[in-house]
């Protein structure tokens, strides 16, 4: 079953074409790595899946429903930096993800519901390896720990799709390796669909079940925005033989 379906999608900002006629099906439960040079439209693609940007033309669906019409609660997102609230503790941050999903208008939960939310948040905090840091503020955490927290916060929404935009790009190689060791089993256990943008090809192939490369295959020096990004290869790593498109 296809979780995300992208049909004839174009994205233009003014007279600049960023994404050109994108067609893509992402299977439910897959881990898709998206690679490509800076400025080729990877973040724009993620923002469309998140529902923050709309395609200029074309359509996108999640489990058969049009994407922009859905609330964002079924999608969690982690950016390279600034995904967590500095004024909330580890627990507060994870609860903020949960409360947003449960009651976006009321913001706060009470009684049994709140106890259940705290219990679930604590489970997530342990699952990402922050069990000893529940009451700390992000400023007291290392970069890797902050990204662990961002992942827990995104997962608190019980998302169908987890969107990661260069989530480990600011971390040193050792910490990145620890994040890989965290993320892959979490993904396998939770059975969600992941789309991860990364600059690191090794990371793309280590974590992904599929690797998609975006590129501006054609470039017009007279009109730099005339052609948008297209898919230059699409490798299914679950098959024996990967065939470039
Ligand atoms: P990547 O994530 O692959 O580095 P982006 O998706 O951030 O690339 O950007 C792709 C192109 O779209 C860039 O040329 C960028 O300047 C342009 N762009 C992205 N968002 C906007 C926007 N909101 N308004 C105008 N141009 C934008
Ligand atoms: Mg980007």
TrEMBL record:
Keyword match ATP-binding: yes
Pfam families, per the entry: ABC_tran
Nucleotide-binding is among the record's keywords: yes
Gene3D superfamilies: P-loop containing nucleotide triphosphate hydrolases
Recorded superkingdom: Bacteria
Assigned keywords, A-Z: Acyltransferase, ATP-binding, Nucleotide-binding, Transferase, Transport
A molecular function GO annotation: ATP binding
Stretches assigned to the ABC transporter domain: 4-241
InterPro entries tied to this protein: AAA+_ATPase, ABC_SmlMolc_Importer, ABC_transporter-like_ATP-bd, ABC_transporter-like_CS, P-loop_NTPase
Entry's family note: Belongs to the ABC transporter superfamily.
Matching PANTHER family: SPERMIDINE/PUTRESCINE IMPORT ATP-BINDING PROTEIN POTA, SPERMIDINE_PUTRESCINE IMPORT ATP-BINDING PROTEIN POTA
Protein name, per record: Lauroyl acyltransferase
Organism: Methylopila capsulata
């Amino acid at each position: 079953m296809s979780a995300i379906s992208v049909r004839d999608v174009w994205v233009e900002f003014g007279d600049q074409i960023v994404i050109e006629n994108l067609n893509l099906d992402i299977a439910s439960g897959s881990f898709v790595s998206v690679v490509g040079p800076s400025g080729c439209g990877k973040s724009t693609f993620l923002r469309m899946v998140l529902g923050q940007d709309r395609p200029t033309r074309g359509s996108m669906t999640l489990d058969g429903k049009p994407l922009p019409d859905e609330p964002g609660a079924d999608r969690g997102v982690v950016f390279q930096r600034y995904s967590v609230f500095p004024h909330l503790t580890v627990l507060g941050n994870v609860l903020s993800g949960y409360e947003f999903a449960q009651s976006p208008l009321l913001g706060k939960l009470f009684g049994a519901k709140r106890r259940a939310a705290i219990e679930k948040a604590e489970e997530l905090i342990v699952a990402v390896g922050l069990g000893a840091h529940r009451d700390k503020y992000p400023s007291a955490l290392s970069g890797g720990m902050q990204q662990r927290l961002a992942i827990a916060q995104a997962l608190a929404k019980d998302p169908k799709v987890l969107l990661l935009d260069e989530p480990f790009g600011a971390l040193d190689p050792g910490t990145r390796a620890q994040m890989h060791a965290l993320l892959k089993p979490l993904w396998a256990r939770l059975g969600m669909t992941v789309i991860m943008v990364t600059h690191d090809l090794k990371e793309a192939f280590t974590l992904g079940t599929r690797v998609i490369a975006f590129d501006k295959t054609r470039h017009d020096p007279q009109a730099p925005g005339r052609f948008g990004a297209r898919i230059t290869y699409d490798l299914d790593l679950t098959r024996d033989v990967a065939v470039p498109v």
